[in-house]
Q: What sequence folds into this?
């Protein structure tokens, strides 16, 4: 694997060059509907659909759509509750279908992908409340899912990482059934405006996700200034990160969000939380959904599967 500091991965560079030739515009130059269509169309960058023994659509509390993936439905497996990325505005269970299939197959875990409601129609804190409802439902109905409630990990990428971090802290505070861990993949953890993270400057232009696009997403998600420091919206700004479960934070080298992910991992360690940081050299934000063109994405799926087994003790 390319070492950190040696530059953008050649496949990532080729992808950026192709986007430039195709005239792909950043999100802050699109309408909400155009942005959603662009994310849906980007599934062309994903690999083949992994066949699984069980893929089932269901409703949480008869209201919230979700999709269950299980490679061994005859067994009781660890459960990954997955919250998709998309800047709180875009993304869907359908857009994340192939990455979830690949993770379920590689890890042997059941994966429950949640269709939380999106901003701006449903701004903060609605998506957080949806995800909390899904976590509680999954815990209560785990046996129906072929899953073990004592081995449940919350996972999210990008905006889904913010939701996962917020919900993990909320579960701790509520006294609900504790989570076995959380996995945050290149998470966004505080609003971009006023954020001093150096990577927002060094990687804020020219690397797929731009600072302007991040501000556009946060602008649609938050209701106003009162939300910018709420720890359910901005987990990095929470006063107390103690007593959280074992955490893995994945960051991409050429991501404007890289440094806030690293800062969150440092704060977790300082609070006594067992924390692993996995920095992917030469990588762009959002790369996990691009396994059809980026070997880094396929490598990350294998890393996550191994992490679920070794980090969280899911040995069977």
A:
């Amino acid at each position: 694997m390319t070492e950190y500091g040696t530059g953008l991965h050649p496949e990532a560079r080729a992808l950026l060059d192709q986007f430039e030739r195709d005239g792909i515009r950043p999100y802050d130059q699109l309408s909400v509907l155009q942005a959603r269509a662009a994310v849906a169309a980007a599934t062309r960058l994903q690999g083949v659909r992994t066949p699984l023994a069980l893929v089932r659509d269901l409703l949480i509390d008869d209201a919230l759509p979700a999709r269950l993936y299980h490679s061994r439905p005859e067994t009781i497996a660890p459960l990954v509750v997955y919250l998709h990325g998309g800047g709180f505005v875009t993304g869907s269970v359908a857009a994340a279908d192939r990455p979830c299939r690949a993770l379920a197959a590689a890890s042997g875990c059941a994966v429950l992908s949640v269709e939380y409601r999106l901003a701006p129609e449903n701004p903060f804190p609605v998506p957080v409340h949806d995800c909390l409802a899904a976590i509680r439902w999954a815990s209560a109905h785990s046996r129906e899912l072929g899953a073990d409630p004592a081995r449940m990990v919350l996972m999210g990428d990008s905006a889904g990482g913010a939701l996962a971090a917020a919900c993990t802290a909320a579960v701790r505070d509520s006294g609900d059934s504790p989570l076995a861990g959380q996995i945050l993949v290149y998470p966004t953890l505080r609003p971009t405006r006023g954020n001093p993270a150096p990577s927002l400057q060094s990687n804020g232009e020219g690397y797929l996700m731009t600072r302007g696009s991040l501000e556009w997403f946060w602008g649609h998600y938050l209701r106003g200034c009162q939300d910018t420091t709420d720890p359910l919206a901005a987990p990095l700004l929470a006063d107390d990160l103690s007593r959280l479960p074992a955490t893995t934070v994945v960051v991409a080298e050429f991501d404007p969000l890289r440094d806030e992910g690293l800062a969150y991992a440092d704060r977790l360690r300082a609070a006594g939380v067992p924390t692993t940081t996995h920095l992917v050299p030469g990588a762009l934000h959002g790369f996990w959904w691009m396994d059809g063109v980026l070997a880094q994405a396929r490598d990350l799926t294998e890393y996550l599967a191994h992490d679920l087994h070794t980090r969280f003790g899911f040995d069977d």
About this structure: The two ends are 29 Å apart (CA to CA).
